[in-house]
Amino acid sequence: MKKWFVMSLIVALFIVSACGGNKGGNTENAGNATNAPTNNTGGSTNEGAADAEDIEPEEGASLLVWESKEERPFVEAIAKEFTEKYGIEVKFEEVGAADQVTKLTTDGPAGLGADVVVFPHDNLGRAVTAGLVLPNDFYEEKSKSENSEIAVNAVTYDGVLYGYPRSIETYALFYNKKLIPEAPKTFDEIVEFAKTYNDVPNNKFALMWEVGNFYFNYPFISTGGYVYGDNGQNKDDIGLNNEGAINGMKYYGSLKDSVLPLNSGDITYDIKKGLFTGGTLAMDINGPWTIADYKNEGIDFGVAPLPSINGQPASSFSGVKAWYVNQFSKYPQAARLFASFASTKAAQLKDFELTGAIPANSEATSDPAVQDNEIVKGFVAQFNQSTPMPSIPEMGNVWSPIAAAFADVWNSGKDAKEALDNAVQQIKDANNGAAAK
To answer: Where are the alpha helices (DSSP H) in 176-242?
Structure first.
């Protein structure tokens, strides 16, 4: 459901430094229970000696890292610094982040997988239940203290931290400053603006979003509702049809007449992009992947947090990209060391500099390099009120029923409670069927 974006940003160069705990070496093959690190404050024998608190890599270790083509500049830069400091060779292989768990399922046990992988957090449930990744145990406190709590929760599964957070993503409100100089704070303001701005025959619309896509519709559930309880981990606690969710769905349905009088199937990413770049769409709810397209068209636009709904902050779905250590790595200690080194504040700022990836590190997002960029600052503000997509496998049972519920309310005017009750029953049936198997 997500894409990861690339944009050119010129900021100051940062010197990457490694932090972390200490580590005891283990030269046994990965997948063995003895992969747990032990304390060892011995340093590297290289000129760039390891910090005293760093984990000690296995003798003769070398690493393979998977990442997408778009992230090559960052991975190659951080790998070079890592090799210079620790004397460990790091090879890079292009594998899309969304494909890595599937590939690791076969390549991991066969000894062909990368030592360090990276994927969006909503794939974590699959990876953990398949026994593919090791916990982030040695650097756990470091990762928790340095990164956003939202990001840390996203890369935690069943109470265990697995990921080394690196970057974040969510969607927010794009607005054409020529058509609407300031971003609305509430959806009611958008309704008022639409009364004087909308001109359907001439394709003039106040606001568009993919109204048939639950990924973008979650804000209407978030005003009192939720998908799964316990930070998205409890499949038996479904909050999609509680009072808050129903009220949000009712408000959503009212917007067809007042803001966007089109059927859900007539609103696509490409249509929205064409109208926004054409100067007739005033506002668009979209993700950072579209920044480059809008900039290239010369649109003077801003990005702001989503307007409130029914007096409640609108939470968006968010994604967190993190490093993970392959359970089957021959060098789990060295892999842990790299994952920590490549996710520090300085490393995340370098990633931001080279690829535009928004940092998960709390201090990095407060850095002038990020805060002085008004567009990125808008996404960071929205992320701070976002909800990570649930990573449990049962999330797969949610998308179709809830999308149908939203479509019924938007296109046919179906009762919000009835639509949501039907969707929740389908989700429960699917979850119970999966559990029985």
So the answer is: 187-197, 214-222, 229-232
